Amino acid sequence: MAKRKNKGLTLLLSERSMHSGGHVRSRSCALPHFHHFDFPAGNKDDSSSPSSGNNSLTSSPSRSFNNSNGNFSGGSPNSDEFSPGGNFSVGSPYVRSPWVHHRRVRSPRDETNENLTNSRKTRNGLIGSLVREEGHVYSLAAAGELLYTGSDSKNIRVWKNSKEYAGFKSSSGLVKAIVVFGDKIFTGHQDGKIRIWKFLGDEKKAYKRHGSLPTTKDYFKTAINPKAYVEVRPKKNVPWLKHYDAVSCMSLDEERGLLYSGSWDKTLKVWRLSDSKCVESIMAHDDAINAVAVGFDGLVFTGSADGTVKAWRREMTGPSGPTTKHVLVDVLLKQDNAVTSLAVNARALTVYGGSSDGLVNFWELEKGVMVFGGVLRGHKLAVLCLAAAGNLVLSGSADKSICVWRRDDGGVHTCVSVLTGHSGPVKCLAVEEDHGGDGDYSYDDDQPLKKGDRRWRVYSGSLDKSVKIWRVPEHAPDY
After folding, report:
1. Strand 125-132, strand 466-473: pairing
2. What would the DSSP string read from start to end of 16-44?
3. Per residue in 42-93, pLDDT tens?
4. For the chain: N or C, fewer Cβ within 10 A?
5. pTM above 0.85, yes or no
6. Domain residues of the chain, as ranges?
7. Cα angle: 39, vertex 332, 395; to 5 degrees
8. Degrees, nearest 5: CA angle 417-411-380
9. Are strands 401-407 and 392-397 parallel, antiparallel or unpaired?
C-alpha cells in the first residue's frame, strides 16, 4: 500500500485547489452515492492489519463465480444521488471539498442486476470474481493466459481462465509488487527483498524459487567492502545495493532488460536482468517511493510520499560496455499530498499520477518537454492505483470504486464509466486486451466489436480480499 506522508491522516479530499491556472483538458466524473469509509491510519501500509489464520497454500478454499455484487455503470444521472454533494449533510467534510464547486457532468448510470444474470452473454461490465479468503490483495500482474495475485498472506496465487492454476509462497514479507518477464516472476516484498521465481512448465504447473535481487554472492561481496556502505539514518549504514525497507513498486523495461524497483527507503534501484546486477542506486526522494513507471523517450517516472513526481532520463555510458545512468530532468509535481500511483500511455506520450487527495494529474510530452495537461476529478478518497490501456486510463480508489477515463484526440479526458462492486479500497489494477471466446466469459457471436474498437479485461484487487474481473470497451457501450 502506498505510504502516506503523515501518520493518522484520514484520506478525505484536501480542501486545497490544484493547478488553479493553466489550460486544463479534463472533465469531472460525478460518482454515485456511497457510504463514508475511514481509511485505516497509523502504519506504512495504510491498510488494516493482516488477518490471522493459517497462511499455507492449502489453508483456505478458493472460489470463482460470476456476477458478484457489483455493477457496471453507463449513461447520465437523472437524480441528485449522482451529484457529488448529494445526500451529504452540510457539516460533512465532503461538502467542503473542491468537488462541490464543479459543474455536474455526464456520469454513468447503474445497470440493474437483471442485466448481469448470465455472465456468458454479458458483453461489458462485471463478469466474475476470484476470492481466496486469506488476506488483502496488494498486487496483480496479467501475462498471457495467467493472472498473478499477491496478498499479505505472503502467497502468490496463479489463475488461469478464472480458476486457480498454481501457487507459491515466500518465506516472509507480504507481496507488494509483481512483474513477469518471460518464464520468470519478480516479486517485491514488505521485508525489502525482491524474489525471483521460475515457471517449470504447463506439465508440472509449478514454480521454483530461482534467486533474489541482489544475489547472495553480490551482497556478501559488497558487504565486506566498507566503502560500499551508505548512511540511511543516524548511526545506521547499509550496503548500497540492497533495499532496507519495503519494496513498494517495480517496473520493467523489456527492450533494455532493466528492472526498476522503488522502496520506502527513498531509493530507486536499477537491475540488469541478464546477470541480476544492481547497476545503479539513486536516492530519488525525500520520503518513501510509492510508484515507478518506465515511460517513453528514455524517461522513467517516480512518485513519492513527499508529494513529488520526478522524471529521470536514462543515459547509456561506458567505453567497456553499456552502463546505465539516470539523471533528474524535471520535477513534474510538488504538493503536500502524497503521490500514490503512476501509469504511462506510451502511445500518447502521457504520464498519469494519482495522489492521496483523490486527484489524477497528467502530463504530456510536447517538443521534448513534459507539459502539464490537466486534472481528472472522479474520486472522493485517495487514488491508490492506476492502469493505462489503449485510449483508456483507469483509477482505483479508497472509495471502493474504479473510474474509467477515455482520452480523445487533443488530450481531452472523459469519464465513460464507474465500476463499483468492491466492499473495500481498490489497491491494484491490471489490464489486458480481451479477445473474447475464452473460458466462462465468452460472449455472443451476434455482438461483434465495431470496426476499430477494442475491448479490455480489467482485474481489480481490493482490501476486501477479492479480485474482480471486468470487461470494458474502449468506446461507450451500447445498451
Report:
1. antiparallel
2. S----SS-------------------SST
3. 344 444 333 333 333 434 444 444 443 444 343 333 333 323 333 333 333 3
4. C
5. no
6. 62-473
7. 40
8. 40
9. antiparallel
